[in-house]
Design a protein that fits this description.
By secondary structure, this protein is an alpha/beta fold. Helix 1 packs parallel to helix 2, helix 3 packs across helix 9 and helix 6 packs across helix 7. It is globular and about 55 Å long. The protein starts with 6 loop residues before the first strand and ends in a 14-residue tail after the last helix.
């Protein structure tokens, strides 16, 4: 592409780090950078870090002849996409932050603000495992578990911008306490964070979910017990969700989905055994992994640029 072709700045704000990438209309990376979120400094400091990162990368891209024409932000928590407001994030602690106004004021560019899970769903709908499907459920499994119903490549938000919090379905009544205040929520058993925590409780050894998956594949019995428990809980959560929403396809994203068939095969079997009144949907792994948030934010930013914009199959 020529340097004058449309470019956008995509930002994905996470609890640990903030990724910012300049993408062209073929979704090729022109520039990228990363900063620690630094949430221990407080929510105001995180907002300032996001703003500074955006202006810094805009300056860098401009000096290299690829000035972005729009900005896309993917944010955690409860996000009002209509007003571009981060309503609340328990992870970071902010409330009612008007990101659209802040970033558009700092850059004089159009700004798309979305939720990180919805951004991931957008990426998978247009360029990933959901491509060609008019209706599917995107479920990223990481530190927590969220979901979004994608219909015609559009993400459902719910009346209060809270749709998709299936990680807080109570699948084990009177079970372990959850950060939300309830007991027995799915993400206390089936999230990547839960797998790591429960493995440490059983063995006294520290390992993240990917390491537990590797040890499960290698035949370690404590790892297998923790993994099987997580798969069983995940199956209960997805069967409950399927009973209500009846999606033809579930696309699993986030860190846990990278286990591939070690997760997918027993999960499909467990869902088939547990489903009594609902049809079992196809279950597939997402194609864009941890890149989905940035990619989805970039796609939504490209939507703001007037005129035809070509988005090819190249990804981050």
């Amino acid at each position: 592409m020529s340097p004058a072709a449309p470019c956008v700045l995509a930002v994905d704000v996470g609890g640990t780090g903030i990724k910012a990438t300049v993408l062209d209309a073929d979704l090729a990376v022109r520039h990228t950078t990363w900063r620690p979120t630094g949430r221990e400094r407080g929510p105001r400091a995180v907002v300032d870090t996001v703003t500074a990162l955006v202006t810094e990368l805009l300056d860098t891209a401009g000096r290299h002849g690829t000035p972005p024409q729009a900005v896309g932000l993917a944010l955690p928590g409860i996000v009002d996409e209509t007003t571009g407001t981060a309503v609340h994030s328990a992870t970071i602690g902010w409330r009612n932050v008007t990101f659209h106004d802040i970033i558009s004021g700092a850059t004089d560019l159009p700004v798309a603000v979305t939720h990180d899970v919805r951004a991931g769903g957008t990426a998978e709908a247009r360029l990933g495992a959901g491509r060609g499907h008019d209706h599917f459920l995107f479920v990223p499994i990481g530190t927590s578990i969220g979901a979004v119903i994608m219909t015609g490549s559009r993400a459902g938000t719910g009346a209060h911008h809270c749709a998709g919090k299936i990680g807080h379905l109570r699948i084990r009544p009177n079970g372990e306490p959850c950060t939300c205040g309830a007991r027995g929520c799915a993400e206390t058993y089936a999230s990547a964070a839960a797998v790591a925590r429960r493995y440490a409780a059983v063995t006294g050894r520290t390992a993240d979910a990917a390491e537990v998956a590797a040890r499960t594949a290698a035949g370690e019995l404590p790892a297998r017990a923790v993994w099987d428990e997580a798969v069983d809980a995940l199956a209960d959560m997805l069967v409950l969700t399927t009973t209500v929403l009846d999606p033809p396809l579930i696309v699993l994203g986030g860190g846990l989905s990278q286990a591939g068939d070690l997760l997918l095969d027993p999960l499909r079997t467990a869902m088939a055994a547990k489903a009594t009144v609902s049809a079992v949907p196809t279950v597939e792994a997402a194609e864009h992994g941890e890149r989905a948030g940035c990619l989805g934010a970039g796609l939504q930013a490209l939507d703001l640029i007037p005129g035809p914009v070509r988005t090819g199959a190249r990804s981050l």
